[in-house]
Amino acid sequence: MKIKKYRAADSQQAMRLIRAEQGPDASILTCYQVPEGIEFVVALDAPDLDDVDQPAAVVAEPRRQKIDVRSGAQGSGGDRDMLTLRQELGSMRTLLERHLHRLAVREPQPAVAASSLLTRLAAAGLTGPLQQRLRALLPDTAGRDALAEALHASLADISCASWPEQGVSALIGPSGAGKSHLLATLALQHVLTGAPQPLYLVSCDQQRFGAREQLQALGRVLRLPVLFASDATMLREELATLPENARVLLDTAGVDHGDSAALAALATLLDDAGIDHRALVIALDMADGVQHDTLAAYAALNPAGIVATRADTLAAGGLASWLCRSGMPWLGASASRDPATAWRAADTRTLVDGLLPTWVEPEIVVPAASEVPATVSRWSWTAQRISA
After folding, report:
1. Does 187 reside within a domain?
2. How many helices (H) and strands (E) does the chain have?
3. Do 199 and 298 fall within a single domain?
4. pLDDT, tens digit, for every residue of 55-72?
5. Whether residue 330 is found in the same domain as residue 378
6. Which residue has better confidence, 379 or 138?
7. pLDDT digits (tens, 9 = 90+) for 118-163
8. Same domain for 379 and 338?
């Protein structure tokens, strides 16, 4: 093997000299700064070991020497030593070219986002199946416009149901889900919107302390009639006296998902009274396992849809992620303690519009261009095989 040194003002000029003389497969052993600029040490395919330490413009013609390698006995001792040395240097050269690439010419890397898409989706409260859909649709550098389009496509499977303008709607769900608060919210919305249908408030809750007094107080404030029923017969008789165009909100006693006897009794009450529209009320601050068990238990009562209460306890995308997991039609959500502003009708567009302002735009980071180090140790062994 033979080595040669090339000197130039900068690395680009040195590369052009190496390419012009040695071709595209030159093997660079090392480079370092010199007073004239930069110096590259290149390995040449030659049979001797002369170190041609000359300027780049002068290329010495390699001297050729015939060495008989067929048998150790047929050549001189010097020839055998030279052959062994050449083999060892060839092995060293292969090792250097394979493992040392510190001076490799790197392609420019594309601009990337400072924070990953997964991190920003999680920060917005987008989890579960909805997060998986968005990750399949969005690039890492997605902005608000791309997110809005992907959300509309991903939320297309959510069925948005509406409340009937007349008839009986029963609020069912576990204890503490917010049924009584939801009843007050819906009643206040009915009064504020000036709906032409008369509204009646009915309670079958005989368990919660103060439920009757609370509903009576609400009726006095809103000037709405309030009725009470203790069983299916009384409930059916009370409903029979109401006008045909009346709208009725029925508050039921809370039943936990593990109480199968109470669930069966509630189903019998509603069936005997002929109440088909049943809204399942679930608080979003419940544990995920309890929510899953509640949905499974109340599925036997054939709810017409689901109402999510305490929606403000989740991040902006939490409600949308939860609806993708529920698998039931969506009737609406209650999001605050103030009944006048708590109600949100079921509409996936409002979910998207509420999420977009909280979306963090990605910060684009452009990697710096690779440069030759200002100072390189003269004795640092580095090598590569590049296209000069």
Report:
1. yes
2. 13, 15
3. yes
4. 444 334 444 444 443 444
5. no
6. 138
7. 888 988 889 889 999 999 999 888 888 999 999 999 998 899 988 8
8. no
The CA distance from 384 to 29, in Å, is: 7
Shared-domain flag, residues 165 and 233: yes
The per-residue pLDDT for range 241-299, each reduced to its tens digit, is 999 899 999 999 999 999 999 999 999 999 999 999 999 999 998 888 899 999 999 99
Contact status, residue 127 vs residue 314, Cβ threshold 8 Å? no
Q: Are residues 81 and 206 located together in one domain of the fold?
A: no
71-100: average pLDDT: 62
Sequence-ordered list of residues with C-beta below 8 angstroms from that of 256, at least 6 positions apart, any chain:
174, 175, 262
Element (H, E) at 270: helix 260-273
Closest CA to 236 of 247, 245, 227: 227
How big is the CA angle at 79 (ends 74 and 80), to the nearest 5 degrees?
A: 75
Domain membership of residue 357 (yes or no) is no
Range of the domain at 284: 161-346
Which helix (H) or strand (E) segment is 372 a member of?
none
Among all chains, which residue has been given the structure tokens 């890492």? 140
Q: Is 124 within a domain?
A: no
- In 3D space, the residue among 210, 209, 189, 211 whose CA is nearest the CA of residue 199 turns out to be 189
* pLDDT on residue 37: 82
**Statement: residue 228 has pLDDT above 80:** yes
What is the residue whose two structure tokens read 């045909």?
A: 244
Structural domains counted in the chain: 2
* Structure-token match 């149901």, residue found: 161
| Structure token digits, residue 191 | 């009064």
